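Bench notes, bay 3.
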Amino acid sequence: MRDGRVVGEGFHTYDGLRHAEIIALEAAGKNARGATLYVNLEPCCHTGRTGPCTRALISGGVRRVVAAMPDPNPAVSGRGFKELRAAGIPVDCSCTSGSSEEARRLNEAFAWWVRRHRPLVTLKTGMTLDGSLVLPKSPNGHQSRWITSEISRAEVQRMRHASDAIMTGIGTILADDPLLTDRTGLPRRRPILRVVLDSLLRLSPKAQVVRSAQGDVLVFTCASLSGVRAKQLSARGLEICRVRPRRGRPDLAAVLDELGRREILSVLLEAGPLLNQAALQADLVEKVRLFYAPVLVGLGGSLPGLPSRKRAGSLPIRELSHLRTEAFGRDFAVEGYLRDVYRNR
C-alpha cells in the first residue's frame, strides 16, 4: 500500500516456490519503495524451499510492515520482525486484533504441521438432530443419500477446497461410492489428495475414486503390495502404501506421519462411525465440524465417533474449545477444537 492505494498483492503458490511477499513486490515494481506491506504472517528470514522474504523487503525499499501474527514455528518466531527492525523498518504486529484471530485460523494447519510434522485433522460429518448418520428407507425402499441440505453440502465443498487431503475408510467407499473431489472450481495450490484406508484392499477397480484417479489417490493398507488387487490398482494410477497394522487396520498415527512427510498440512476426515471412533480414540483429531439437519428419525445414538450407545464408555469425555455455530439454510453447524493447535502438546 502506497499513498492510500494498493500497488501490488500476492498469494503463496506451492509449485511456483514463491512466497506472497515476493509476488507482491514483483507486482508493485518501483512502487514498492516507500510502501507499507500488509501480510497475514511474519515474513520468513531463513532459506528453505524459498529464500528469505525479509531480505527482499529490505532490498525493495519497503517502508513499514504490518503483520497479523508471528511465525508459529518456535525456531524462527520473531526473528523476521527482528531483522526488519534492525534494517530500520518499523513492524506492527497487533496479536490481539480481529485480523490476528482471522490469520490464526487461516494459518492453523501450517502452525500444527510445522510443530508436529503431521497434518491437522478436521472431523466433519452430517447428522440428524438425534444423532443418526443415515436416514431410514422410505416405504417404497428408497433411501435418501443426503441428510443435510444443498447449502450445507456447498460449505463442505469449501472445506474440501481449504484442505490438502480428504480421508475416508473403505466402508464409506463400499457404501456410497464417493468421488471425494473438490468441486468448487476454484484454483488450488496443488491437487487435493484423496486418501483411502483399506486394510484388506477391497477397493474395486470400478469405484469412482479409482476410475477418476489422476495420480491423486493414495491407499493405505495392511495387505501385501505384491497381490493381484494391489497391482490392478497401481496400474490404474493409484499409489498403494503399506503401513503397520493396529488391531488389524492401518495404524492411523503411521498414516498421518506419512502424510506429514509428504507436506500434507491439513486432512478433512469424511468417514463413517468406525473410522471416526478410531481417530477420536487415538487422539488424532484436532478440530470437529458437525452439520445438523432439523430431522428426527428415531435412530439416535450414532454420534460421529460411535456406532452405538453401547460403545459410549470407550471414549473419554472431552470438551471443545473456541465453539462457533453457523446456519446453512435449514441446517446449522457446530465447530470446535479438541486442542490448541498453536501449543506444542
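Next record in the batch:
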Amino acid sequence: MMGLTLALPASVAAFALLVVLITWLQRKAFLVRQLAFPLWVAAAAAGLEVFLLVQPAYRPAEMHRALVWLLLFCGLTLVLRLLGLYLFEIHLYAQKGVRMPPLLTAVAMAVVYLITGLVTLRLTLPNLDVTPLVATSAVTSLVLGLALQPILSNFFAGLVISVERPFRINDWIRVGEHEGRVVNITWRTTHLRTRDNDNLVIPNGKLADERVLNYYYPHPMHMERVKVGADYKIPPYRVRRALLEATTGVAGALDKPSPDVYVLSFDENAILYELRVWIEDVVQGPRIASDIRARIWEELKKAGITVPHPIRTLELPPRPRRVASPENDAPRPAYLYVAEGADRGASLALDGEAATVGRSRDCTLRLNEPNASKDHLRIAWQDGAWTLTDLGSSFGTQVNGQATKSRALAPLDRITVGGTVIIFESD
C-alpha cells in the first residue's frame, strides 16, 4: 500500500513535468507545436513507466499491456502526424499552392487519431471487446448532441465554411450590419477585425444563416460611389467634367477602369449625379471617398458650379414689358464651352464683341485642333441672335451634325470643328 501511495504521485508528477516541458517547447519550435498530441501520449506512457518502476508488482500484466498500447499508439500517431504535415504543408501548400483550412486539417487528424486508437487497442488487448465501448460512445454522443446542439451546429457550420471557403483569412467581408477582416476561423466562431480595430466574434452557425458579402472575391478592387447634387442652371457636361477632374491624383483611386459619372435623377432642388470610382482596396474606401469629396468641392468651386441647398424659392412672373426691336436689342450673355477635344474644359464669354475661333494666336478662342483653320469661324451678334459664320475653313464647320456656312445659334447647339466639340450656352 505504501508503494502504491508513492508510485501514483511519482507517475503523475512525471507526466505533469513532461506536459509543462512540451508546452514550453511549443512556443519555441514549430515542429514541437505540430507534434504536440503524440508527445502528450508519450508523456502519458512515461508516467505509466514510472509507476511500473516504482510499483512493479501491482497488476503487471494489464499495466504492461496498457504501456505497450500507449507506445504503439504514440508511434503510429507520430508517423501519421508527420505524414499529415507532409501532405498538407509540403505537397498541397508548398508544391501545389493549395492551402487547406486549419479547421479541416484538425478535424481530419482527430478522426485519424480516433481510428488509430481503436485499432491499436484491439491489437494490443485482443480480449477486450470494443463493441460496448463503441455503442456506449454512440449513446453518449446522442445525449451530448441533444444537449450541445448550438455548439455542434457551430462546429458543423465551421466545417462547411472550411470546405466551401466562401471567405479566407485576410478577406474583408460583411455579415449583416458588421464588416471587417477575417483574422481567425475556429471550430466554433469566426473572428473579424473591424475598422475600429476591434475584434468581432461571430458564431459559425450565424454565418451559415446570414448573407455574407466578400469584398475580396474575385478581386479586392471595389467600386466607390459618391453622390453630388448640382444646380439646374449648370449643364450636365460641365458637372461631369468637374467630377472627373476631382478623381485625378487621389491616392488609392484607379485610373483603369476609368471613373464615370451618371445622372441619377432630377430632384426637387438639384440634379443628382453619381461619381463611380474604382479603388484598389475596400478597406481604404472611407478615406478615399473623403478625399474625393474634398477634391469635388475644389473643382466645383473652380468651375463656378454651386451645390444648391434644400430651399424653396417663390418666383413671381415679371411684368410685361415692351419688346425691343432687333436692331436695338442688346446682346444676350452667352458662352462657348469646349466639351471634347484637346482643349476640353476651356470656356469663352461672349460679351457683345465678335469672337473668332481657330488655330491662330489672334483668335479669341484658340484651338489646338489640327483640322481647324487659322481663322475657322466667327460668332457675332446679328439681328437679335448670336450668329455663326464659317470663314472659308478647309474642313468646314458642323452645327448639331450638319455642315453649316452661317446660322443663328440656339442654346446648347454643338459646334464641331474637326475632333473638337464646342457647346454654345445661353440663357
